[in-house]
Amino acid sequence: MNTAIIANYKNVSTAVDYIRKFTNISPDIGIICGSGLGKLVEDIEEQTTIPYGDIPNFPRTTASVAGHIGNLVLGSLGGHKVVAMQGRFHMYEGYTNEEIAFPIRVMKLLGVRVLLITNLAGGINRKLKSGDFVVIKGHINFPGFGLNNVLVGPNQDEFGPRFLELSNAYNRHLRQLALDISRKNNFYDLVHEGVYAFNGGPTYETPDESNMLLKLGCDAVGKFEIYFLNL
Fold it and tell me: Is residue 74 within 8 Å of residue 24, measured between CB atoms?
């Protein structure tokens, strides 16, 4: 991994300029495909696929996690222009905050205004069953308590303010839309709203840690970077 990568406006713009050589799509929705959901891109129409390794300044995937192939896919899905990450970068693989931030800032400059993130997580709430869906309504960022945050350091004003307000980070309208769709398609009993706990990993939680998270009001726990919401 190239730890010298800096997710600043100049480097991100260089990556975006390269991507635009291959497509004129201006996506309004970004999708991060979590473990096992990389095949979602097969439903994207008129797609352009660009390997991460071809994009200037873009972090290179280690391919150490199953289901994270390492492609940026642009096209149309459900009547919307989208860009999808077929594989993402995890803190526990050794990626820096700058590397984790880089693809999301690329999406932002491409035109993305709505970000859909998926991942596999462990259920803490005892009402959850294997295979259920949780629509995240809030989170607890445990690494963030120790200043492990992608926004630490000089602020990049082109991407947002120094101090970011997160009271509606998980958009209420989109959460309700997800619940309405599940009800309309008869799988509402599999869908829940909940609070997500971010544990950097790669170890799983001890029973004592899981009990603590449950008492704190968490419903699920995992290693997906809620850092993305800060960008």
Answer: no
Amino acid in the structure at residue 226: I
Q: For the whole model, what pTM was predicted?
A: 0.89
Q: Which domains does the chain have, with CATH numbers?
A: 1-118 (3.40.50.1580), 121-230 (3.40.50.1580)
**Tens digit of each residue's pLDDT (9 = 90 or more) over 197-209:** 999 888 999 999 9
Residues 6+ apart with CB under 8 A from 231: 101, 104, 105, 108, 150, 151, 159, 160
Instruction: With CA atoms as reference, report the closest residue to 87 among 76, 79, 95.
Output: 95
**Longest CA–CA separation in the chain, Å:** 52
By the 10 Å C-beta count (0-12 exposed, 13-18 middle, 19+ buried), 103 is classed as buried
Q: How far apart are the first and last CA of the chain?
A: 21
The amino acid at 99:
E
Do the beta carbons of residue 73 and residue 41 sit within 8 Å? yes
Q: Which helix (H) or strand (E) holds 174?
A: helix 172-184
Residue found by looking up tokens 């990556």 in the block: 15
Nearest to 169 by CA among 97, 228, 84, 105: 228
